[in-house]
Write a structure and sequence with these properties.
mainly alpha; two-stranded antiparallel sheet
């Protein structure tokens, strides 16, 4: 096996990069029930600043996982919703969340043992 499998543009690294940012997976998960306005997303997600929310939504849109819909209303209204590609990540995110639920205590215990 060569190290070519780990080049920056390999598909496995692309997938891990998409989920390595905490907010990416959180936003995808929150959007699973349908379109949401940014204010609603901030209400549902504790600890995310408006700036980080905007950056994350733009990153997800850039990667084809989220679609932004702007409505010509007064006041202006914007909603975000998952694309089919974004929806395809729901099962892997759910599986990773189940793993974290099952093994989270073990990970935190290891961190504590190592001074974390």
């Amino acid at each position: 096996m060569t190290t070519d499998a780990y080049l920056a543009d390999c598909r496995a690294r692309l997938a891990f990069d998409l989920l390595s940012n905490t907010w990416n997976a959180v936003l995808i998960w929150v959007l699973r029930d349908g379109p949401r306005r940014p204010a609603h997303l901030r209400e549902r997600i504790g600890g995310i600043s408006p700036k980080v929310l905007t950056e994350t939504l733009r990153r997800l849109e850039f990667n084809g996982l989220v679609e932004r819909k702007a409505y010509a209303e007064a006041p202006p209204r914007v909603e975000y919703e998952l694309t089919e590609l974004g929806r395809s990540l729901l099962d892997p995110i759910e599986a990773f969340g189940a793993w974290a639920f099952e093994h989270g205590d073990e990970v935190m215990a290891a961190q504590e043992r190592h001074g974390g």
